[in-house]
Amino acid sequence: MRARLCTSSRRRLQTNVLLDLARHITTHPGIHRSSLRARRGLSMRRWDFVPAYLRGDLEQGEVVYCRPPPGYETIGSDSKTRVCRIVKPVYGMAQAGRRWQRSLFPWLKAWGFTQSDADPCVFVCNKEVQGKPQTLILGCYVDDLFTVYSDEGLSSLYASFTTDLSSRWNVQDEGLVSDLLNVDINTDADCVILKQE
Fold it and tell me: Which of the residues 17, 66, 148, 162 could staple to 7 if both were Cys, CB 3.0 to 4.6 A apart?
């Protein structure tokens, strides 16, 4: 039997904390990368991290509680309200996205990516593979990873990265990018068409 526990954030955080959280989980780099894909003839694929928000860690000393899930007793034998202590980030926690990114982003940097100054959710890696310069650009959006790459052969930078990615994280290749946030993305050899109805 499988179940999913989701928390409900009821306490108001300071405004600057909310803005910082939103900045890290609301950018959508796939659309911005599509013009780059057209200019350089790059390919674009989407990867999904399977339960990404459950992969992060709470910060040292961080204590988070939630109410018991439906079906569990909320009043203990001592007549006190029961609460559950959260030991790993779960869906619904305001900080779950940040905790996930604090697991993913250092791994990307250690792999050789440079984080963009303009958008902290975009990473770039340029390497020479078998005497040929190759480019790999990543855009992180919640639990999706958009990849824009120049080569996809067995010994390419992209193939090496996706092999390591699959070894480290539970991911699914969702194929070529065809939509993002209700925007249809159609690609031709030399252009990308964005359409929203």
Answer: 66
